[in-house]
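Researcher: I'd like a candidate sequence for this fold, 160 residues long. If you have to choose between options at a position, lean toward the conservative one.
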């Protein structure tokens, strides 16, 4: 049987840190769905469609990834994909409380859901989308932090 996992997130925008987690997941599972969430309780820089397109472009070289969007609860989306495994990145202790509460809430909503935490490589440990959004707004260099298509989209968003 093919093994499958879902890596959900806001991906506003997708960063090299997310890519690092995704590549690790792709080496473990036959198929990984990168699922871009519509509702995340945050004000986003990019629309759902823009985030989806940037994720799609950034991952087109990885054969066992598919990109999709979802609305509503993650557990409902996971059920629709016949998949009980959620991947999340764990960068530092500061992620732990939020990630634990997300994992436990999902488990309460559907006891069959499991969350698998992957740790990013050391060089991506400190990356976050909000730091990168700040860097973009202040015309800082982006290429070390995000895929090239994302860097271009961020510059366009702020300065065109
Ligand atoms: N590298 C770089 N940054 C990373 C990272 C990594 N490996 N892992 C996490 N991050 C950062 C992101 O950049 C982002 O930073 P920001 O807060 O500064 O913008 C932050 O950590 C988290 O973003 P992301 O990984 O995109 O996920 P998220 O926490 O926004 O995603 C969902 C949360 C989408 C999984 C969750 O809201 C969800 O499931 N929503 C659907 C509704 C639902 O079912 N809710 C739960 C039950 S009520």
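Model: Candidate sequence:
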């Amino acid at each position: 049987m093919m093994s499958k996992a879902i890596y959900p997130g806001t991906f506003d925008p997708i960063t090299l840190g997310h890519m690092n987690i995704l590549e690790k997941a792709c080496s473990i599972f036959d198929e990984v769905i990168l699922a871009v969430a519509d509702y995340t309780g945050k004000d986003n820089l990019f629309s759902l469609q823009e985030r989806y397109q940037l994720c799609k472009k950034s991952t087109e070289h990885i054969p066992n990834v598919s990109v999709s969007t979802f609305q509503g609860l993650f557990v409902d989306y996971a059920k629709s994909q016949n998949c009980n495994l959620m991947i999340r990145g764990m960068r530092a202790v500061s992620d732990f409380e939020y990630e634990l509460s997300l994992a436990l809430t999902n488990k309460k909503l559907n006891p069959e859901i499991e969350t698998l935490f992957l740790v990013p490589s050391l060089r991506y440990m400190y990356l976050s989308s909000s730091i990168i959004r700040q860097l973009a707004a202040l015309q800082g260099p982006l290429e070390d932090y995000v895929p090239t298509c994302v860097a271009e989209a961020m510059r366009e968003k702020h300065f065109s």
